[in-house]
Design goal:
By secondary structure, this protein is mainly beta. It is about 10% helix and about 20% strand. The chain starts with 8 loop residues before the first helix and ends in a 19-residue tail after the last helix. Pfam families: LRR_1.
């Protein structure tokens, strides 16, 4: 027995034929199965402006090109690979002065964030999220930051020290800051009397060492009138529920304030929020009732999570009129009364419904015998639901159902019907065996596979290295899979 180990043919082609790409301007190999290290020559192509190698299996360190010849590369995306080590020194970037976007998220890069990245003359977007970077963000009051900066994304690292937003005071084009998931990074946001020159669209500071009064005394937030995403979860923030955000001119898409110490209620709200898609205020001390006109206030909600609060009263029927709801979590509150039957059937897109640990009652599933077709998770436990499970209940895509600690009765054999009606359960594999066939030697399969692979890549190699293919823009997108 012997084992033949070889480098994936595509990598050999990528290394061998890189010179044939001398006229290429855009290289997009996103979302494939490429592996190995990145060829250094890739970053020396004279006309290449755009590289996207995200969502592959590349590994090793960031390539270091010490040539003094400048290249026109403007966009470099290496997200979601297995690259590691510290980023190279400033000298290695001296030929990349045209970079506008550097995106290295979801890798294993480590060490300190280099100062020179903030000084690249044309840099607009820096995304170093979900890596192992440590130490401070190299910005201080005297930093001469690139005036082109629009987006700073450093979430989920091990950053420490302190950063003050006033140090970003010359960045008039700044639109996005995401520092979430850096528990030891102190972030100064509220600077009384200071009006920033920028208007953020996205602000994410969840799980940072943040000023606890950013909502109670919202000096900074009240200056930001174009916010689309506001994530401030996991900060033990104090103050009342910031309903003042819901103005007539608001453009909010996502409001995440979960796991804080907010009080007050979410009612009254006076203005419709036509863009709002996600509200997450779980694990707070919010009281009061759900707005009776909730569907007209938030007509395009996809996610509503108000779990683990002190919400009282009934579930309003108008909740069923929010057509696009995918996740609805009202668990661990003090809701009472019967659940409108439409909650179980009206949502064509609903995947998760959690009503656990309330005081809800009435017939289970509203007395109906069908659930929303797309629902996968259903939690009704620790309530006061009664009645029997309908014998002809159809379960859509149901995978998890929890009904414990209620007042249900009847026989459990009806549950078999849920599986029978489950459109997402794969059928049992068909057992088929031709006893008269002669078993095929597994080695034959190996030979056939090897012949196909080597022949196929030989054709690909010829195509890529042929003179007529040198100016081709390579795109190898994977076809997305649609699940129920």
């Amino acid at each position: 027995m012997f084992i033949l180990k070889f480098v994936p043919p595509v990598i050999l082609i990528l290394h061998a034929c890189i010179a044939a790409f001398k006229n290429i301007r855009n290289l997009n190999l996103r979302d494939n199965q490429f592996s190995g290290s990145l060829p250094l020559s890739l970053f020396a192509l004279p006309h290449l402006k755009f590289i996207d190698l995200s969502f592959n299996n590349f590994e090793g360190r960031f390539p270091i090109n010490l040539t003094s010849e400048p290249v026109p590369l403007e966009v470099l995306k290496l997200d979601s690979n297995y690259m590691s080590g510290a980023l190279p020194s400033e000298r290695a970037f001296q030929n990349l002065q045209n970079l506008r976007e550097l995106s290295l998220s979801f890798n294993q890069f480590s060490g300190n964030i280099p100062t020179f990245l903030f000084l690249l003359p044309h840099i607009e977007r820096l995304d170093l999220s979900s890596n192992l970077f440590r130490g401070p963000i190299p910005i201080n009051p005297s930093s001469n930051l690139s005036l082109s900066l629009k987006s700073l994304r450093f979430y989920q690292n091990n950053l420490t020290g302190r950063i003050s937003f006033i140090w970003l005071g010359n960045l008039r084009k700044l639109e996005e800051i995401d520092l979430s998931g850096n528990a030891n990074l102190a972030v100064d946001v509220n600077i009384p009397g200071w009006t920033p020159p920028f208007q953020l669209k996205q602000l994410a500071l969840s799980g940072c060492d943040l000023d606890k009064n950013i909502i109670a005394e919202p000096h900074f937030l009240r200056t930001q009138r174009r916010l689309e995403v506001l994530h401030l979860s996991d900060n033990n923030l104090s103050g009342s529920m910031p309903n003042w955000l819901f103005t007539e001119e608001a453009t909010l898409h996502e409001l995440h304030l979960g796991n804080n110490s907010l009080t007050g209620s979410i009612d009254p709200i006076w203005h419709t929020q036509p863009f709002l898609q996600s509200i997450d205020i779980h694990m707070n001390h919010v009281t009061g009732q759900l707005p009776a006109n909730i569907s007209s206030l938030f007509p395009r909600l996809l996610v509503l999570d108000i779990s683990n609060n002190n919400i009282v009263g009934h579930i309003p029927t108008s909740l069923c009129e929010i057509d696009f709801m995918e996740i609805l979590d009202l668990s661990n509150n003090k809701l009472s009364g019967e659940v409108p039957a439409c909650v179980f059937t009206n949502y064509s897109l609903l995947m998760t419904l959690k009503l656990s640990n309330n005081k809800l009652g009435g017939q289970v599933f509203g007395g109906l015998n069908s659930l929303s077709n797309n629902i996968k998770e259903l939690y009704l436990d620790n309530n006061k639901f009664d009645g029997t499970i309908p014998h002809n209940l159809s379960g859509g895509c149901l995978k998890f159902m929890n009904l414990h600690d209620n007042e249900l009765s009847g026989k459990l054999d009806t549950l078999h019907q849920i599986t029978q009606g489950n459109m997402c359960v794969a059928p049992d594999p068909v057992a088929h065996e031709d006893v008269g066939e002669t078993p095929i030697d597994p080695a034959l399969y190996a030979v056939m596979a090897a012949s196909f692979v080597l022949g196929f890549w030989a054709i690909v190699a010829f195509s890529f290295c042929h003179p007529y293919g040198r100016s081709v823009i390579l795109k190898l997108y994977s076809v997305p899979r649609k699940n129920c």
